[in-house]
Design a protein that fits this description.
heterodimer; A: mainly alpha; globular; B: 277 residues; mainly alpha; 65% helix
C-alpha cells in the first residue's frame, strides 16, 4: 500500500527520476536500502550539478524528517555514508559544510508504538557518520580503499 | 547552502519550535524542537531570531517553562552556529532576568535550579567572551593547545579559567541530583544533565591536553604543581559524577557517558606513552 502512495506522490509532486531513486532507497519500508540502490545513487552524484543537488536536497529532507519517519532518517544516513565513499568529491564538501545536520542527530529520540527505542539506531549511525566526516585522514583512506568500509555500509537486506 | 530558505516560513516554524521546546509539560525539552532551533542558526548563520523568539514566550510565568528555556538556550549555545555565542552576549540581561520570576523554592522546586543555571550560563558566556577561540562544547582542537605552548602565561590563565567553569558544572550537577524527587521520572531535571556531561568532558579533554603540552614545553614542573593538584581533584569529582550519571537509564540511553580511569592520567608523560582519552 505504501508503495502505491509513494508512486502517486512521485507523480503529483513532480519528482525527477533521480529524486524518485533517493525516495525509494530511503522509504519507510522495513527493508533496504539495498547495495544496488546505494551504488546507483553514488554514481549519479558524478552527473550534472542539477542531479547532484537533487540528490542532496532529497537526502537533506529525509535527514530532517520527524520521529515517526525514523527509517527515512536512518536510511538517509546509510545512503550518505555510502555516497561519501563511492560518490563524487562534491559529496564530501557538502557533508563537511552541513555536518551540523548529522551531528545534531546524535541525540535523535523516537519510541515506537510498541515502546521500542528505535531512535537508538539513528543515534548510533549519526555518531559514526559525524566522526567520519570530521576525520579527514580516515575519510581519504576509506575513499581510496573500499575493503576497509565495505562490510560496514553494506545494504541492510539485498 | 542549498537548503531552500523561505524566510517568513522558517521564522514562523522557529516560533513554533521555541514554543514547543519550552512548553509547560514537566518533561525534557523535546529534542526535535531543540534541534530545529539549532539547525535554524546554521541555516541563517545567526541566532538573532532565536533570541527574539524566546523573548516573546511567556516563560517567566511558569518555573518548568523557565527551566526548559534555560536548557534550550544551553543546547543552542553548544551546538548552534558560532555566531550564537557572540550574539548571546547581548542577551545576558535577559538571561539574568529569568531569575527574577522566581521567589524561593517554587511550587515544584525549580527555584534553586533556575538560579544556579542562570549563574552557570552567565559564567560560560564570560568565558567565551574572553576566549573566543573555543566553541560551544569545547571540542578538542589541536591549535589551541599549541597556542598555550607559545605563551605559557596565557595558557596558565586559560587553564585556570576552564577549571573555574568545571567547578561550577560540578556545583550545579550536585544541586540537580539533590533536587530529584522520589515521585515521577525526574526527566526534566535529568535532561539538564545532558549538556553538562558533554561540556564537562570537553573541558576535561582540553585541560588534559593543554596541561600535557605545557609540561613538555616549559619543563617547569614546580610552577605547574598547583594546576596538577587541582586537576587531580577535579578528575576524582568527574569520575564520581559520571558514575552517578551511568546509573540513570534515561541518560545512558541518550548519550554515552564518558569512562574515565579511576586515577588521573600522568600529565608528565611523553605524548606517546600518555593514555588516550
Amino acid at each position: 500500500m505504501s508503495k502505491v502512495i509513494r508512486s502517486v506522490k512521485n507523480v503529483t509532486k513532480g519528482y525527477s527520476s533521480v529524486q524518485v531513486k533517493v525516495r525509494e532507497a530511503t522509504s519507510n519500508d522495513p527493508w533496504g536500502p539495498t547495495g544496488t540502490q546505494m551504488s546507483e545513487i553514488a554514481q549519479l552524484t558524478y552527473n550534472s550539478s542539477t542531479e547532484f543537488y537533487e540528490i542532496m536536497d532529497m537526502l537533506d529532507k529525509r535527514l530532517n524528517d520527524k520521529g515517526k519517519n525514523w527509517r527515512h532518517v536512518l536510511k538517509a544516513l546509510k545512503v550518505m555514508d555510502y555516497c561519501l565513499h563511492e560518490g563524487s568529491e562534491l559529496v564530501v564538501t557538502w557533508a563537511k559544510q552541513n555536518i551540523f545536520i548529522i551531528k545534531t542527530l546524535r541525540e535523535f529520540i523516537y519510541i515506537d508504538e510498541e515502546g521500542k527505542d528505535v531512535g537508538a539506531n539513528v543515534r548510533i549511525a549519526a555518531k559514526e557518520l559525524s566522526a567520519l566526516i570530521a576525520d579527514e585522514e580516515r575519510l581519504r583512506a576509506e575513499r581510496a580503499d573500499r575493503r576497509i568500509w565495505k562490510s560496514r555500509v553494506n545494504g541492510l537486506e539485498e | 547552502t542549498i537548503r531552500s530558505l523561505d524566510h517568513t516560513k522558517s521564522e514562523a516554524e522557529l516560533a513554533i519550535n521555541i514554543k514547543k521546546a519550552t512548553s509547560p509539560d514537566e518533561t525534557a525539552p523535546k529534542r526535535k524542537h531543540v534541534r530545529s532551533c539549532i539547525v535554524y542558526t546554521w541555516d541563517h548563520k545567526s541566532s538573532q531570531s532565536f533570541w527574539a523568539g524566546l523573548k516573546v514566550q511567556p516563560i517567566l510565568a511558569d518555573e518548568v517553562q523557565t527551566f526548559k528555556a534555560l536548557i534550550t538556550v544551553h543546547k543552542v549555545l553548544q551546538e548552534g552556529h558560532p555566531s550564537t555565542l557572540r550574539e548571546a552576549l547581548n542577551n545576558r540581561s535577559w538571561i539574568d532576568s529569568l531569575n527574577r520570576g522566581m521567589s524561593g523554592e517554587g511550587m515544584r522546586g525549580y527555584g534553586p535550579l533556575i538560579k544556579e543555571y542562570v549563574y552557570y550560563l552567565l559564567a560560560k558566556l564570560s568565558f567565551h567572551q574572553q576566549h573566543p577561540e573555543f566553541n560551544g562544547t569545547f571540542e578538542y582542537e589541536e591549535y589551541i593547545s599549541l597556542k598555550a605552548i607559545n605563551d605559557p602565561n596565557e595558557g596558565y590563565e586559560t587553564i585556570t579559567d576552564l577549571m573555574m567553569l568545571q567547578d561550577k558544572i560540578d556545583q550545579f550537577q550536585k544541586l540537580i541530583f539533590s533536587h530529584f524527587r522520589t515521585t515521577g521520572q525526574n526527566e526534566c531535571r535529568i535532561s539538564a544533565l545532558v549538556p553538562l556531561v558533554t561540556e564537562s568532558y570537553g573541558i576535561y579533554k582540553f585541560i588534559t591536553s593543554m596541561l600535557r603540552a605545557m609540561h613538555s614545553a616549559t619543563g617547569d614542573n614546580d610552577a605547574l604543581e598547583p594546576l596538577r593538584e587541582r586537576y587531580n581533584a577535579q578528575h576524582y569529582r568527574l569520575v564520581k559524577y559520571y558514575y552517578e550519571c551511568s546509573n540513570i537509564r534515561y541518560l545512558t540511553s541518550l548519550i554515552t557517558i564518558p569512562k574515565l580511569p579511576q586515577d588521573p592520567p600522568n600529565l608528565l608523560a611523553e605524548d606517546e606513552s600518555a593514555p588516550a582519552l
